[in-house]
């Protein structure tokens, strides 16, 4: 069988037959040859073929394996053109993309080795992986004593030496509360309910550094819940007083004391309300009235008598009462509702105790109906002759609706707000008589007792 071209030889005119069939040859074995062998299909010397090899000649399985890998055309008439070269499709191709791939892989390996080396060097320098140190080498935080004075830490560090844990021991048991130094010679303000009770008592104060000083009771005022003790130590640093009349809701505050016997505890919060009227006291004991500062700073049993301070470290109140969902004092705890006696009132009462041994009580010279009245305001049941209310023109039956723009809803509001002021203070009272609303300026006085 032939491929149909065995009768055609390049350079032979069409229609002429070949002299005879080509001799058969064994299957090609592609030996290495010392050089090209002449092709039986080569054109006679001097002749010009009508066309080059057919397009798939190189892929012809019957082609002579010793034939050249390309067909060279004779030069054109001018002799200037370079011969056209036809590349054998079976010949090996140049590397091309393979070289690019190899370069990319080698580059990635080198980059990985370099990155790993640098990472190891940094880790070793920072102590990681060496088994000797943990953590980074960031900026060293300042020591507690070097905190900015106006920071919370700075305020706490400055005030803790002036806050004490008050311990009271007697044959009936012992109790614990808080207090704060208000003079260099050892006077300390605390709550009356911290030092109250019968029997012979001994008082001690424990400072933030653990040192202990004995103390004696100077005096107490059960209705205002303020007491003063005197330490057997001098050269102390008193706490700075603020002005409780200038605070506002939202001001930041700190509460310092010994809640649940955890001495030197500092908690933070804000002023939640001002002039929050509170009536407190144990059954059978004195009834206490507060126009208090409300705060959400965490306050618990043991905080009583400790200071509530503003962001500048000035005391603005004496922590005294908490509200709790538990009616049992032993299980009551902080729920974000704590109340402090305004420092302006506490300071005045403490000064009276130090100077005279007892405190004056501020009054308006009238008695009021307990609880709420119809509508808003507090009804005056009786007005004392010659007292502050009568002198200002008030009469029994009048309904007081406001004191210095503070609305009144029940008798507790009137009593607590009046006792917040010092004797001799002048307040504006708004009241209703019949259908008319009137105002009067009332000069408050001290109780005769």
TrEMBL record:
- A GO molecular-function annotation: serine-type endopeptidase activity
- Residue ranges occupied by any PDZ domain in the UniProt entry: 353-412
Q: Which residue spans traverse the membrane?
A: 100-123
Region (Disordered) location: 1-94
Q: Which GO terms describe its biological process?
A: proteolysis
Question: Compositional bias of type Pro residues: which residue ranges?
Answer: 20-47
InterPro entries annotated for this entry?
A: Chloro_Bact_Ser_Proteases, PDZ, PDZ_sf, Peptidase_S1_PA, Peptidase_S1C
Record field: compositional bias (Low complexity): 9-19
Q: Name one Pfam family in it.
A: PDZ_2
Record Gene3D superfamilies: 2.30.42.10, 2.40.10.120
Q: Which SMART domains match?
A: PDZ
Keyword list, A-Z: Hydrolase, Membrane, Protease, Transmembrane, Transmembrane helix
Q: What is this protein called?
A: Putative serine protease PepD
Q: Which organism is it from?
A: Asanoa ishikariensis
């Amino acid at each position: 069988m032939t491929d149909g071209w065995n009768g055609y030889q390049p350079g032979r005119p069409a229609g002429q037959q070949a002299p005879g069939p080509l001799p058969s040859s064994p299957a090609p074995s592609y030996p290495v040859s010392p050089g090209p062998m002449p092709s039986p299909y080569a054109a006679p010397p001097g002749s010009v073929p009508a066309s080059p090899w057919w397009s798939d000649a190189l892929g012809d399985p019957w082609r002579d394996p010793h034939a050249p890998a390309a067909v060279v055309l004779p030069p054109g008439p001018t002799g200037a053109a370079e011969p056209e070269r036809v590349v054998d499709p079976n010949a090996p191709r140049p590397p091309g993309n393979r070289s690019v791939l190899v370069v990319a892989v080698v580059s990635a390996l080198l980059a990985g080795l370099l990155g790993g080396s640098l990472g190891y060097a940094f880790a070793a320098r920072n102590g990681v992986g060496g088994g000797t140190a943990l953590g980074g080498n960031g900026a060293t935080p300042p020591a507690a004593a070097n905190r900015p004075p106006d920071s919370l830490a700075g305020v706490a560090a400055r005030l803790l030496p002036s806050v004490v844990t008050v311990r009271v021991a007697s044959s009936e048991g012992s109790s614990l509360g808080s207090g704060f130094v208000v003079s260099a010679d050892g006077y300390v303000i605390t709550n009356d309910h911290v030092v109250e009770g019968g029997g012979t008592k001994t008082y001690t104060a424990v400072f933030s550094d653990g040192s202990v000083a004995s103390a004696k009771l100077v005096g107490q005022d059960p209705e205002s819940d303020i007491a003063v003790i005197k330490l057997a130590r001098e050269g102390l640093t008193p706490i700075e007083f603020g002005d409780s009349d200038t605070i506002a809701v939202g001001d930041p505050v700190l509460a310092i004391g010994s809640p649940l016997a955890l001495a030197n505890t500092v908690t933070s919060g804000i002023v939640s309300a001002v002039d929050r009227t509170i009536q407190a006291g144990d059954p059978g004991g004195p009834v206490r009235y507060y126009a208090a500062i409300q705060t959400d700073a965490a306050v618990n049993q043991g905080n009583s008598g400790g200071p509530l301070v503003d962001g500048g470290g000035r005391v603005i109140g004496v922590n005294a009462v908490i509200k709790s969902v538990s009616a049992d004092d032993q299980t009551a705890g902080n729920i974000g509702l704590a109340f402090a006696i305004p420092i302006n009132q506490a300071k005045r009462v403490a000064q009276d105790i130090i100077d005279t041994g007892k405190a004056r009580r501020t009054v308006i010279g009238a008695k009021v109906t307990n609880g709420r009245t119809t509508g808003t305001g507090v009804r005056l049941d009786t007005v004392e002759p010659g007292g502050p209310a009568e002198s200002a023109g008030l009469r029994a039956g009048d309904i007081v609706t406001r004191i210095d723009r503070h609305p009144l809803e029940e008798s507790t509001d009137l009593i607590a707000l009046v006792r917040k002021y010092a004797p001799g203070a002048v307040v504006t009272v708004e009241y209703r008589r019949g259908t008319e609303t009137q105002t009067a300026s009332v000069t408050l006085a001290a109780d005769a007792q």
